[in-house]
Amino acid sequence: MPPRVRHVCYCLTPMRYAWDQFDAYFGPGRLRPLGTCVMRPIMAGLARWDRDTADRVDRYVAISHHVADRIGRYYNREASVVYPPVDTVFFHPDGSDPERFALIVSALVPYKRLELAIDACRQAHVPLKIVGDGPERAAIERLAGTDTQILGRVPDEVLRELYRRAAVVLLPGEEDFGIVPLEAQACGRPVVAFGRGGARETVVPGETGLLVEDPTIEAFAAGVLEAVHRRFDSGAIRRHAERFGRERFGDEIEALVRGPRPAEHAS
């Protein structure tokens, strides 16, 4: 890149599998012991390369304060925060009454903790629908009983209808930001999320959903039941989601790109 060209990195997250989630991808239960041993030095080398190239960036912009903290921890760099854009025009309420089922929209990968949600919904006696696909689908299907329906990928219009009809949308894993909770809230539906990571920035406890601090089946089941029986103000939930719309994103990104370079990387 020519030296006068400004390098702004909109960072979704430093690589999870190389930095702090090695076991979730390559640890016991994921690979045989030999495979884990082989992957450990490879990922350690990848982390060193990632850190060594981090200073090529003039300015980091993170998708959440959670990710900004990770950038500080692993790259030793400060980061501005601009939340990703949410399509609050397409995702909107239509006056549908909620039905008694929980919804998950997710890639089927290990760190999403879908097994926790399946077991919690089973304990709470609340049917669960899962939208998404991925390498863990076969394992998830083995866990799912008659009370869990795995729908795979669905068209956007079907997804919007599912959001509108769900009693609650679940986020059982720790997310760097999480678009799904805001799409659900744009449709006026509450969210029950694990109280770590980006969910702390997108879900207002008691107003737009609930945060579960203890990642256990019992705690998550209690959160699901509370959300199903609680009366939430769908209009207030929708207004909260509108704060994350696309126009806001464009304005904030443009202001950062046109603004002055950070002092430590100014030329």
Describe what you observe in this structure:
With 267 residues, the chain is α/β, with parallel strands linked by helices. It has twelve helices and nine strands. A six-stranded parallel sheet has the order 6-5-4-7-8-9, sandwiched between helices. Strands 1-2-3 form a three-stranded parallel sheet, with helices on one face. Strand 8, helix 9 (199-202) and strand 9 form a beta-alpha-beta unit. Helix 5 crosses helix 10 and helix 8 (179-186) packs across helix 11. It is globular and about 60 Å long. The model has no long low-confidence stretch (mean pLDDT 87).
Strand content: 15-25%
Main sheet: strand order: 6-5-4-7-8-9
Instruction: Tell me the major beta sheet.
Output: 6 strands, parallel
How widely separated are the two ends?
15 Å
Gyration radius over CA: 20 Å
Question: What is the helix content?
Answer: 40-55%
- Write down the overall geometry: globular
**Could you name the ranges where pLDDT drops below 50 across 5 or more consecutive residues?**
none
The strand count comes to 9
* SS-based class: alpha/beta
Number of helical runs? 12
Sum up the structure in keywords:
alpha/beta, single chain, 12 helices, six-stranded parallel beta sheet, three-stranded parallel beta sheet, 267 residues, 43% helix
Secondary structure layout plus pairing:
Layout: E1 8-11, H1 16-19, H2 22-26, H3 33-53, E2 59-62, H4 65-75, E3 79-81, E4 99-105, H5 114-124, E5 128-131, H6 137-143, E6 148-152, H7 156-165, E7 166-171, H8 179-186, E8 191-194, H9 199-202, E9 209-212, H10 217-229, H11 234-242, H12 246-258
Parallel strand pairs: 1-2, 2-3, 4-5, 4-7, 5-6, 7-8, 8-9
